[in-house]
Amino acid sequence: MDISTIKISDAVLYKNNQVIAFNKPPSLSVQPDKTGEKSLIDLGEIYCKSKLQVLHRIDRPASGVVLFGKTPKATKILNEQFQSRSIKKTYLAVVKTAPAEREGKLVHYVTKNSKYNKSYCSLEPKKGAKEAILSYKVVAKSDNYHLLEIELETGRHHQIRAQLAAIGSPIKGDVKYGAKRSNKDRSIHLHAWKLSFKHPVNNQLIELEAPVPEEVVWQSMKY
After folding, report:
1. CATH match of 3-220 with 3.30.2350.10
2. Facing residues of 60 across strands?
3. What are phi and psi of 193, to 5 degrees?
4. Residue, of 1 and 150, whose pLDDT is higher
5. Predicted confidence (pLDDT) per residue in 65-89, tens digit
6. What's the whole-number mean pLDDT along residues 12-41?
7. Please, is 151 exposed, middle or buried when counting C-beta atoms within 10 Å of its C-beta (0-12, 13-18, 19+)?
8. Where in the chain are the domains?
9. Closest C-alpha among 67, 3, 12, 71 to residue 39
10. Are 44 and 31 within 8 A, CB to CB?
11. Largest separation between any pair of C-alpha atoms in the chain
């Protein structure tokens, strides 16, 4: 990905003195990684002219809303909201093979393999595994693909990718989890669509929505 083509000001979804949220493009990392390329937080700090604090992450090949703290107090309060699971996160995913049921809840036990940067699902508890829960529903389809709306109850490593792969519905472009072919830009069709949280100062409910990427398959799946 050519980082120089990203106009970070166009990606701002919400900002005030306490927080800022961006609609992360696919293939841009949230934090610096081994590639040495500028990350979303690097670009965000240039835009804000101040330090930002990471509150949560989405995978590099995915897209969508990412929230950062701008002050220590806001960061502390929002971290507590994430840890208590009071922050609601809704994703969209495009899959080739639809789940057997049009909607349902998936419960797995996820084990992370750091060496391969991959997570594995089992239906029974295992030593070192963490419970992973999500709810999904099929909300649209095209000739070749299905669009799933996903509500995350837990936030595990590669959770959505691993759980959908476990039921035979890997995300489009996600060859790591069983998709037959990659996307040209090495993205995957997973989008952090909505995020709701309580404002760290006035406790007002803030609901953010990130438009899907300007890409043919995503645009054909709007609903």
Report:
1. yes
2. none
3. -85, -50
4. 150
5. 999 999 999 999 999 999 998 999 9
6. 93
7. middle
8. 3-220
9. 3
10. no
11. 49
